Amino acid sequence: xxxxxxxxxxxxxxxxxxxxxxxxxxxxxxxxxxxxxxxxxxxxxxxxxxxxxxxxxxxxxxxxxxxxxxxxxxxxxxxxxxxxxxxxxxxxxxxxxxxxxxxxxxxxxxxxxxxxxxxxxxxxxxxxxxxxxxxxxxxxxxxxxxxxxxxxxxxxxxxxxxxxxxxxxxxxxxxxxxxxxxxxxxxxxxxxxxxxxxxxxxxxxxxxxxxxxxxxxxxxxxxxxxxxxxxxxxxxxxxxxxxxxxxxxxxxxxxxxxxxxxxxxxxxxxxxxxxxxxxxxxxxxxxxxxxxxxxxxxxxxxxxxxxxxxxxxxxxxxxxxxxxxxxxxxxxxxxxxxxxxxxxxxxxxxxxxxxxxxxxxxxxxxxxxxxxxxxxxxxxxxxxxxxxx
Length: 389
Fold this sequence. Notes:
The protein has 4 helices and 23 strands. The chain is mostly beta strands. The protein folds into 3 domains: 98 residues, Sandwich (Immunoglobulin-like); 98 residues, Carboxypeptidase-like, regulatory domain (Immunoglobulin-like); 108 residues, Carboxypeptidase-like, regulatory domain (Immunoglobulin-like), CATH 2.60.40.1120.
């Protein structure tokens, strides 16, 4: 009996020891997939999420800190922060009166480097505005004001950071608001031409495609305007050719190229022409007899004169003869037919010519009497003595 009780006690102690050891091993043993709890199934897969994030980030393009990325056709508002660098200074004036214009609108479309159709816009309340456009770029600057034709400065290069600003002078032309023809005449450096002679010609089917300026004008007038603005007399509907010659206050031709253009007037149309005259040569020829006396074409009969660039023939020009001032103190001018000597002594080419080498020829009653080479210089009145022997 005692032996049986002893064996039973040993078995009980062994079972208790086994239960204790099994509980400790459960804390370190790896869980089986079949034994995953509901809480563990709901936990997010952290490693998978991190891999997806890395894949998305690696797919994005890199953006340099030095380049501003904008959407196409976006509007860039210029900064007014005084600490920002002024890169372009714009001044706006009326081309006819030279008076400042304000307010006005401006826009700058960047063309290089091509980072999109970037446009900056603004409105200025004063005639001079400082713009903080992006440094080192190129673009087109447009200036607009009410009742004015727009002004565009194409391919404007904005200075690099730290460089002095670029200055742009914008001269706006008033929009024609009336019938007829208005001419704004100036030199290339925008100085007004204060005296001109204007010839008006009627254009027909027979004269449209030829040198209509060589014909008889409808009228020819000398006029003066300190600001270079000339409103031509009213003309009825039709097609007209206008020839404008710059002169001094006495009517003598200035060394500026002529202006020639045709206009079609409908009775309600208006034209406002901005005319910059380029430098040229105003040639004066003093024709002399072999004895040194002034050459008088009326004494000799039919006298023609021609001036052609070397290598060319057949060009026709009108010539002008000046008479001494009369009792009223004014000199008079006689304009010849094409290639005709108009008077005695000093004559002028009616329209200034481009510089270069020319051949001057004088023919009396079909007999060549002069064949002389002339080198005509730019931007001056040139006097040549020519003996008709």
